[in-house]
């Protein structure tokens, strides 16, 4: 039975995920495949490339660089996070992404985008970590109102979290029956209706289906949380979530605050080390009724 890793988004709350993933890599905890959404995609790819510390390192170093992110970039280009700097200058020159290791690692890595014409999720398997994959990473993390629509492989895409924030059901459908799920919200969190829906409708009037998806997002997210809890109770999922609420904004760039969230991820990762090892070990001998039915 394949063991998967599901990485929720949350923009800079993704420093929490980075902390957990670094602990996993340091302790040789590996899975058969992973799927990342938004920040879970752009930060989670470093798990497949086995680059411990890279996510927190470049975010602390360049987070306050106007080329990295800011309203100047948003007004000038339509992207709050600078496309050229974030997806070319950093991974190609300043803090190189190890695409060679990414390609050699047999673990699969998927990202989720939202098709603005249909409002539905689109899933892409990344195999190179370069060129087109970088565009898929960018698309998955392109937050509405703060990003341009990304066109790749014939799709027009925005943030994958709009249509599928925690893609557990989809991942199970392709064979990942047991999953480690890293969330960026604490146990008490349930999503409420977004107060900016009227603005979404106005600015995305050419794409009514994605505006509709935004309106329904809180319902979708809370339903996915219920599935996560069901799978956790059934022993089919190991959920790692912040042991205390993360209060930073989605666009936080204070190095000290980013480090605090990262260290919380490390703390919770260390606390769950034994559980992760047991979960992966038992997955090799466990069975799932769905597998039997399909056979």
TrEMBL record:
Residue span of motif DGA/G: 159-161
Database matches in CDD domains: Pat_hypo_Ecoli_yjju_like (cd07208)
Domain PNPLA: 5-172
UniProt keyword annotations, A-Z: Hydrolase, Lipid degradation, Lipid metabolism
Catalytic residues (UniProt): 38 (nucleophile), 159 (proton acceptor)
Residue positions of motif GXSXG: 36-40
Gene3D superfamilies: Cytosolic phospholipase A2 catalytic domain
Pfam families xref list: DUF6363 (PF19890), Patatin (PF01734)
PROSITE patterns (alphabetical): PNPLA
Domain of life: Bacteria
PANTHER family named among the record's database cross-references: NEUROPATHY TARGET ESTERASE/SWISS CHEESE D.MELANOGASTER (PTHR14226), PHOSPHOESTERASE (PTHR14226:SF25)
Protein name: Patatin family protein
Taxonomic source organism: Jingyaoa shaoxingensis
Taxonomic lineage of the native organism: Bacteria, Bacillati, Bacillota, Clostridia, Lachnospirales
């Amino acid at each position: 039975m394949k063991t998967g890793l599901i990485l929720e988004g949350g923009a800079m709350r993704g420093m929490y995920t980075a902390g957990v993933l670094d602990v996993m890599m340091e302790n040789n905890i590996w899975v058969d495949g992973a799927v990342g959404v938004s920040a879970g995609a752009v930060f989670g790819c470093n798990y497949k490339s086995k680059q411990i510390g890279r996510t927190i390192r470049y975010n602390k170093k360049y987070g306050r660089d106007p080329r990295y992110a800011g309203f100047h970039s948003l007004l000038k280009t339509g992207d709050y996070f600078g496309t050229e700097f974030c997806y070319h200058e950093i991974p190609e020159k300043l803090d190189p992404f190890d695409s060679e290791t990414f390609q050699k690692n047999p673990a699969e890595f998927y990202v989720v985008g939202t098709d603005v014409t249909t409002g539905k999720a689109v899933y892409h398997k990344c195999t190179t970590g370069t060129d087109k994959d970088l565009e898929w990473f960018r698309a998955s993390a392109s937050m509405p109102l703060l990003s341009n629509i990304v066109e790749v492989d014939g799709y027009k895409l925005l943030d994958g979290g709009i249509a599928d924030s925690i893609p557990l059901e989809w991942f199970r459908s392709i064979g990942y029956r047991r999953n480690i799920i890293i969330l960026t919200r604490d146990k008490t969190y349930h999503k409420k209706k977004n107060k900016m829906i009227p603005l979404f409708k106005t600015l995305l009037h050419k794409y009514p289906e994605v505006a509709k998806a935004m309106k329904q997002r809180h319902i979708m997210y809370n339903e996915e949380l219920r599935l996560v809890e069901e799978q956790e109770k059934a022993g089919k999922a190991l959920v790692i979530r912040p042991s205390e609420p993360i209060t930073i904004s989605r666009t936080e760039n204070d190095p000290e605050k980013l480090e605090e969230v990262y260290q919380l991820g490390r703390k919770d990762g260390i606390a769950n080390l034994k559980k992760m090892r047991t979960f992966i070990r038992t997955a090799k001998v466990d069975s799932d009724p769905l597998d039997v039915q399909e056979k």
